[in-house]
Amino acid sequence: MANAYIKLVPGSTKQEITLDDVKELFYYYKEITSKTGQQVSWEYGDAAFPYDIKENNEEGTNWFYLKSTDSRYNLIVLGVGKEEIEDEENKTEQYYIQITLPQASTHGDKGKANEFCKFLGKKLQGELHLFNGRIMYYYPRK
């Protein structure tokens, strides 16, 4: 199992995020990729997002998953949470999106998950902690 995180830092466009916000961003992603496909006369939307968004039916959970019917892809799990960050003066809450690749995930899922992480990181101007441990900064830094 591998995890990546998009952390919402003080320079991000949002300071809090919900599962519905993340789903809306995926619906937006599907919309823009299908429009790209229309412009080039190719079904790019299906290739760019070969998943169905599946709800988690358990009460009080903060995750959903992307399930694919394509043989090259299988499963990506997404969740939201918050953690306490301490500095010298005070404690603050930091929200994050967690992207998990379970054991059943394929190499195709990892490629798509990296693509989705970068999209979400740019859109939210967050701090992206990739699966390989590297960090990408999408927010304005001083």
Automatic annotation (TrEMBL):
UniProt cross-references to Pfam families, sorted A to Z = DUF1885
Could you tell me which InterPro entries the record lists for this protein?
A: DUF1885 (IPR015062), Rbstp2229-like_sf (IPR036294)
Output this protein's name: DUF1885 family protein
Look up and give the organism this protein is from: Litchfieldia luteola
Native organism taxonomy: Bacteria, Bacillati, Bacillota, Bacilli, Bacillales
